[in-house]
């Protein structure tokens, strides 16, 4: 299936120079496997550490200083300083645009319709580098030719909330980050992004890319994505196919992880126990998805300690699951004096280190999950603790949580 519909192809043929008219067409036979991660179809609005103000409204006194710019504000899609926007007068840097400038915009059927700008805002973003890159506020860089030959015409910098237009639908840029041709640019500590408003939803052109315009705030705080004429698609099956097409294109062009050191991935969960005195107990063996541990006498509570990573980091951003997942635990059995007893506190109680029940069997840990056994243990007896592991995910090799960092 091609990236673009017939209407879109005609548009790109007009826009892209004659030497760069090879519209990308890839197969959709890439199989995407999700192990143990529950689907969440709705995309959560990405955090933004910013102050937003109307740059042409002198009554708007909201100024970006270092302190106020670090407070989260409403997420607003936009493009960064010096991005060229397609207007009736030709390409112009976004910061030079003012209300009244007429943009060349398109509807979802790719019919051209001029649209005057009603407001130009400035979003002053201060990056918080201590957070994961998708939450820190870094802009996303889309490399030249990332989508197709000549698309974009040069590198484009966007906010993570900015939507790109593909085949009659919008896709948030954050879901397409592949760390090759589309990635968070860590060279920025702070920056200004410019959301452009028109009278209604519009598809505008930024360095050759079709992107969504911004919309005025809705009184009931409805996210702007829900009010566009074209749907914003975040479903894994749809976005996943597009993601893998763009990733395959990046690899075919010889792009590598030269800008980033790719994390070392392992499928070994390395589940162990940590006692209340800080002693690390390695598993005795693992068989048929049962991890078995010898418990010393008088150990009445432990923490289940394992590797733990976020699916968005180790699978793909379109998975949209930002929980830090350790292992999905099923039944737990404690055997003393050859008498097995079931421990069910992890399924019944609100314990530290356990994620909320997600409707699937068992329960996920966050990599350091508390398991009390006070009423289950016999005095001065060794015990055999068997933990059923229902599911795991890929992990970053050194991604341990809590005190386990000291026991690598």
From TrEMBL:
<feature type="domain" description="Hedgehog/Intein (Hint)">
    <location>
        <begin position="80"/>
        <end position="216"/>
    </location>
</feature>
<dbReference type="Pfam" id="PF13403">
    <property type="entry name" value="Hint_2"/>
</dbReference>
<feature type="compositionally biased region" description="Basic and acidic residues">
    <location>
        <begin position="352"/>
        <end position="369"/>
    </location>
</feature>
<feature type="region of interest" description="Disordered">
    <location>
        <begin position="58"/>
        <end position="80"/>
    </location>
</feature>
<dbReference type="InterPro" id="IPR028992">
    <property type="entry name" value="Hedgehog/Intein_dom"/>
</dbReference>
<feature type="region of interest" description="Disordered">
    <location>
        <begin position="352"/>
        <end position="377"/>
    </location>
</feature>
<protein>
    <recommendedName>
        <fullName>Hedgehog/Intein (Hint) domain-containing protein</fullName>
    </recommendedName>
</protein>
């Amino acid at each position: 299936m091609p990236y673009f519909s017939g209407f879109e192809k005609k548009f790109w043929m007009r826009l892209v120079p004659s030497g760069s008219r090879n519209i990308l067409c890839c197969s959709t036979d890439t199989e995407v496997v999700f192990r143990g991660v529950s689907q969440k179809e709705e995309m959560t609005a990405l955090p933004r550490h910013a102050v937003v103000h109307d740059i042409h409204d002198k009554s708007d006194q909201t100024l970006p200083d270092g302190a106020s710019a670090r407070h989260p504000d409403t997420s607003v899609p936009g493009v960064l300083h010096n991005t060229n926007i397609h207007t009736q007068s030709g390409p112009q840097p976004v910061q030079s645009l003012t209300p009244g400038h007429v943009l060349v915009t398109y509807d979802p059927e790719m019919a051209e319709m001029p649209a005057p700008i009603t407001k130009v805002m400035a979003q002053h973003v201060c990056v918080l580098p201590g957070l994961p890159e998708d939450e820190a506020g870094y802009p996303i860089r889309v490399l030249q030719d990332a989508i197709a030959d000549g698309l974009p015409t040069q590198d484009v910098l966007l906010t993570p909330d900015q939507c790109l237009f593909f085949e009659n639908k919008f896709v948030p840029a954050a879901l397409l980050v592949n760390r090759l041709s589309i990635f968070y640019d860590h060279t920025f500590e702070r920056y200004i992004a410019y959301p452009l408003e028109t009278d209604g939803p519009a598809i505008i052109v930024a360095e050759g890319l079709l992107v969504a315009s911004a919309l005025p705030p809705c009184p009931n705080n409805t996210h702007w994505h829900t009010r566009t004429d074209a749907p914003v698609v975040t479903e894994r099956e749809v976005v996943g196919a597009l993601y893998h097409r763009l990733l395959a294109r990046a690899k075919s062009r010889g792009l590598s992880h030269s800008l980033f050191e790719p994390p070392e991935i392992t499928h070994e969960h390395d589940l162990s126990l940590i006692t209340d005195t800080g002693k690390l107990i390695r598993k005795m063996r693992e068989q048929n998805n049962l991890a078995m541990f010898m418990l010393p006498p008088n150990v009445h509570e432990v923490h289940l300690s394992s590797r733990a990573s976020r699916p968005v980091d180790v699978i793909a951003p379109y998975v949209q699951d930002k929980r830090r997942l350790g292992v999905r635990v099923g039944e737990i059995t404690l055997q003393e004096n050859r008498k097995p007893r079931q421990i069910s506190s992890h399924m019944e109680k609100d314990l530290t280190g356990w994620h909320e029940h997600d409707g699937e069997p068992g329960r996920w840990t966050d990599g350091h999950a508390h398991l009390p056994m006070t009423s289950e243990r016999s005095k001065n007896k060794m015990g055999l603790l068997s933990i059923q592991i229902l599911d795991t995910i890929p992990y970053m090799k050194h991604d341990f949580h809590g005190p386990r960092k000291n026991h690598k």
